[in-house]
Amino acid sequence: MPKKGANISLSSYDDIFSTQESRQETGEHVVMLPLDAIHPFKNHPFRIVDDEEMQKTAESIREYGVLVPAIVRPLENGEYEMISGHRRRYASMLAGKETMPAIVREMDDDTATILMVDSNLQREHILPSERAKAYQMKMEALKHQGQRKDLTSSQIGTKLRADQQMADELGTSRNQVQRFIRLNNLIPEIMDMVDEKKIAFNPAVELSYLKPEEQREFLEAMDYAQTTPSVSQAQRIKKLSQQGQSSLEAMCEVMDEVKKPPDDKLVIKSDVLRKYFPKSYTPQQMEAVIMKLLEQWMKKRSREQER
Predict the structure, then answer these.
(1) Residue among 33, 8, 16, 13 nearest 106 (CA)
(2) SS3 of 255, please?
(3) To the nearest 10°, the Cα dihedral for 237, 242, 248, 252?
């Protein structure tokens, strides 16, 4: 990507779609650009899905046109890179349009990345994988900006400031930002399962600490147990990895354990029952006696109700 212009900081989402008056003050203006002259942002982390919502957007553009201009930056070959407006461009293509309105803005790589991420994070539905990649891209851009402003600061110090800055802007905690970024360490197969809600977010964060080959073995263990991991199971598998004791057999053993039963199930601890049985009785023998007594009680109760 070309590096042009000064570093432009964005204070809010309102800066993305500036008013006509503010554009006149800065010399910016809306131009009609050919769709085939606008290229997607490099490594754009947000998917463009041809779903029902996209079809509605295309229908609206077909009837009214693109109401909010895209934001692009010029490329050295005379064409443009999309910063904000990927979905509007795709919907315009579906609507049979050849051009779309856009604001051409000079900006460097880091500023372009931050603006691209911020504009897309306003969407209602964002997959965990999209958020994870977007957070990482913005984090790296903020770190670059911090290093340029203060060349004496360490990389770790800059990273912490970037974490906190992102957390403040997003209205969340620095820890939550870091947890989403951790998801980028998942292999594609597990990341897809997180997007599809087959694996919950918190267990997925724990699994992200496994090596890629361990993650692939985990998928085998999950298939063997025919169940998804709880947070506790994922944490124990993570601990096995940290101790160098991770293996397919060990993972299968953890995943094959019976999870904590739902609240509507009754669990009686063995030490409570032991006082009613001889010490030599096994759990199976105890269960057999209990079931036999319950059957007798049920028959007695039925007879009483018939009287």
Answers:
(1) 8
(2) helix
(3) -20
Supply the pTM of this predicted model: 0.71
Residue 156: pLDDT band (50, 70, 90) is very low
Measure the CA–CA gap between 204 and 257, rounded to whole angstroms.
18
- Amino acid sitting at position 41: F
Written as six digits, the tokens of 261 are: 């039963």
Task: Give tens-digit pLDDT for 178-228.
Answer: 999 999 999 999 999 999 999 999 999 999 999 999 999 999 999 999 999
Distance CA 114, CA 170 (A): 13
Distance CA 165, CA 267 (A): 47
Average pLDDT, rounded, for the chain? 85
Distance CA 177, CA 182 (A): 9
Joined together, the tokens standing for residue 256 give 């094959």
Q: What distance in Å separates the CA atoms of residue 54 and residue 190, rounded to the nearest whole number?
A: 27
